[in-house]
Amino acid sequence: MLLTPNDEILAERRGGLVVVTLNRAKALNALSPVMCCVLDAELPGWAADPAVRAVLIRGAGGRAFCAGGDVRAIVEARKTGEAMAFGSAFFRDEYRLNRHIARFAKPWISLLDGITMGGGAGISVHGSHRIATEKLLFAMPETAIGLFPDIGANAFFNRCPGRIGLYLALAGARIGAADALYAGLATHFVPSERLGALTERIAALNWADGGAGALVDRAIAEFTAEPGPAPLAALRPAIDRCFGQATVAAILDSLAGEPSDWARATLETLTKASPTSLAITRRQLALGEGLSIEEVLRLDYRIALRCLDRPDFFEGVRALLIDKDATPLWQPPRLAEVTEATIDGYFQPLGADELTFP
């Protein structure tokens, strides 16, 4: 059903179920441009085909569902002066895929069995069923690489309880299954060893027995377990106090006055992130409340293209993912030097270059 030149993404029909496998295990199934385009091209057909009742998506290799978008490829394209052209096309295709998943009217079942970051959240959390295992490691760590939580993260971070969404967006905090369920990012917990049996159970469903969503719900319920307590629930009062502040500077001050190991560690993380990215992200989430998925992704695209025209993204990827010296030189280096006018510029409409959804 799905054929690609390099087999980066695979699909097969099992009755009324399409099983998609992200097949870049050595790259932790990071999304390439080919993967985004091929999957996005197939979605309308699956949506229209009455024989397709649900889609299940998983990662190969046992370590990751999807570790994000392949941002290193964008940085490599800078060497030939093609970063803007390559990056804008990549973000456009990825965001259109995110929108297709968010609007997919059939069950979209993601098996979050391992690392799920960045773009991996975009192809899962927008769907109807997000099954976390004990191996889940979820994060949106974009502020650490001079970017921002894109892929429509506004749409789900603003639904998190209290200020947890803002905390996860700014700090890129890594969470497991129990926290993902508490935050509403996952819908079910199933032990990793039972995912194979669950997949077979869904594939064997008699779809004539009822609505596809209800049938999938009942099948998953046969395999669910209790993930244990959610650390975020205990941290919620402190998170709400600190991240309920109106500005990033006020959040940092609040964390500095909070007497806990969590606050000290979070403050340290934020002080290492790109100051510009922190200011963008705070503004982004404030503007994103109540927007449609199309409006959220259009906003993301504006910001992403401006990031491709600024140094922090390229410096962050170099320092954290390529050279791995963990010493990015942000421009500007301090939050106090990031002006409101500068941040305003990231959010301005793009005119003829605005993201559209064919």
Summarize the helices and strands and which ones pair or pack.
Elements lengths: L8 E6 L2 E6 L10 H16 L5 E6 L4 E3 L4 H7 L5 H20 L5 E5 L2 E3 L1 H4 L6 E4 L4 E3 L13 H5 L6 H8 L5 H6 L5 E2 L5 H9 L8 H10 L9 H13 L4 H9 L4 H12 L2 H14 L4 H15 L3 H12 L17 H7 L12
Parallel strand pairs: 2-3, 3-5, 4-6, 5-7, 6-8, 7-9
Antiparallel strand pairs: 1-2
Entry summary:
With 358 residues, the chain is of the alpha/beta class. The protein is 47% helix and 11% strand. The protein is globular, with a radius of gyration of 20 Å.
What is the general shape? globular
Described by strand count, sense and barrel closure, the largest sheet is: 6 strands, mixed
Mean pLDDT: 95
Please, what is the oligomeric state? single chain
Instruction: Please state the second-level CATH architecture.
Output: Alpha-Beta Complex
Beta-sheet strand percentage?
5-15%
Give the tally of β-strands.
9
Overall helicity: 40-55%
CATH class: Alpha Beta
Q: Give helix and strand order, one letter per element, not per position.
A: EEHEEHHEEHEEHHHEHHHHHHHHH
Structural domains: how many: 1
Structural class comes to alpha/beta
Q: Count of DSSP helices?
A: 16
CATH topology: 2-enoyl-CoA Hydratase, Chain A, domain 1
